[in-house]
TrEMBL record:
Residue stretches spanning the membrane: none
Compartments, record wording: Cell membrane
Protein name in UniProt: Phosphate regulon sensor protein PhoR
Role according to the record: Member of the two-component regulatory system PhoR/PhoB involved in the phosphate regulon genes expression. PhoR may function as a membrane-associated protein kinase that phosphorylates PhoB in response to environmental signals.
Whole sequence portion shown: 273 to 437 of 437
């Protein structure tokens, strides 16, 4: 099914802003509104939502979070960057395992089951998409999802009302 990710991201952004009252983060949104993909809407929403809530949960009050949706070399990319607590290199490989949580004071404080990223991994696998995580302790993290070109829908085909020659 054709998924209007830009519209979905606007909704997730609104949800994040509500939830944000207690965090007071600055959240930036950079969206190419012409980029749609094929996929499973509800699954994608829960996956992208988890990446956004994680950025909020693991970033101390008043931090900055950027959410982007853009054309990239391999296809279409979604990324969330935060300037939060970061993740030690040795944990990164294991983050998508079920119930895996980095045991920091902040994780205990925020709570969670450690299932979020395991679900993200499965949903992305269904979409032939990949997850890339880069992080520096104390500086922040970037989670980038890459959807293959085959999943993206060319802009023309989204606009059947355009004049026929
Ligand atoms: P759940 O999503 O199930 O409520 P959770 O957020 O703890 O719980 P995951 O989303 O799977 O679980 O994330 C796993 C762990 O990865 C987190 O507990 C946290 O330690 C670490 N993590 C995830 N995202 C970030 C981030 N943006 N910055 C720092 N650490 C992160
Ligand atoms: Mg989570």
């Amino acid at each position: 099914k054709d998924i209007d990710i830009p519209k979905m991201l606007m909704q997730l952004f609104d949800d994040a802003q509500m939830y944000n009252k207690s965090y007071d983060h600055m959240i930036h949104l950079h969206i190419d509104s012409t980029l749609h993909i094929l996929g499973y809407e509800d699954y994608l929403r829960s996956a992208l939502s988890n990446l956004i809530t994680n950025a909020m949960k693991y970033t101390p009050k008043g931090g900055e979070i950027s959410i982007s949706w853009y054309e990239c070399d391999a296809g279409v990319c979604f990324s969330v960057t935060d300037n939060g607590i970061g993740i030690e290199q040795r944990h990164i490989q294991r983050l998508t395992e079920r119930f895996y949580r980095v045991d920091t004071g902040r994780s205990r404080e925020t709570g969670g089951t450690g299932l979020g990223l395991a679900i993200v991994k499965h949903v992305l696998y269904q979409h032939h998409a990949t997850l890339d995580i880069t992080s520096t302790v104390g500086k922040g993290s970037t989670f980038t999802v890459t959807f293959p070109k085959s999943a993206s829908i060319p802009t023309q085909s989204l606009n059947p009302a355009s004049p026929q020659s």
